[in-house]
Each structure stands twice: as structure tokens, then as C-alpha cells.
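Table 4 source record.
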Amino acid sequence: MQWPGHGRSKRAKNNPFVEPCGSWKRKAARSPLCFVRLKARWLNENAMQLDYVRSEIERMRTQVHRQRGEIRQLQRAGISTASAEALLERMLNKIDELCAERDKLKKSQPGPTKGKVLGGRLW
């Protein structure tokens, strides 16, 4: 017996991403497609992390620009800028760390499949 709304549509039957991994009756037996989906999810999460790191770098660069403007204002007013410059240095170090993380994430992503057609066959 199927519950209403739990049946699979024709489109879902042909989509490997809709099928659940295994069934509730036999959890130990997982289909090979399950692992492909897990890998695809990991690659998607990797891409999401890369997008997050890129946006964080952009945000931090905006903050650095503002901080430099504040340091200029303090210098014009004759106020000590030592603490503001220390903060700026920490911000720049954080950007360097984020850039290194971005580069690491970019290297871990799969490259483009240039010249390959359908499953890696060369035609």
C-alpha cells in the first residue's frame, strides 16, 4: 500500500537523484548510485564553500578600504593610528588566509571535460 503523495512520478523514475539510497527494509544494501549522489553532493558543497569564501574575500576587501579611509581621517586629525593600523594588518592577514583557502578549494574541484563527450568517450 502506498500513501498518497509517496508514489513516484514518471519523471522521478528516470531521475537517479530522486530515488532514496536503499530502502527502509534493507539499509545495508545500498545502490551504487547512492555513492554517486553523495559525491555529487560533496562537489556541490565544495562549490558552495568556494562561493562563500569568494564573497567573504570581497566583503573583507571592502572593509579594508573603509579602514584605510578611517586611518587617513585619523592622520589628518592628528590622532594616533597604531591600533587602527594593527587592525588593518589583521584584516589583511585574514584576506591572505581566505585567498589560500580559495586556491585550495579551486584545485580540489574537478576540471572541465574539454574534448570529452558523454561519459568521457573521445570522438
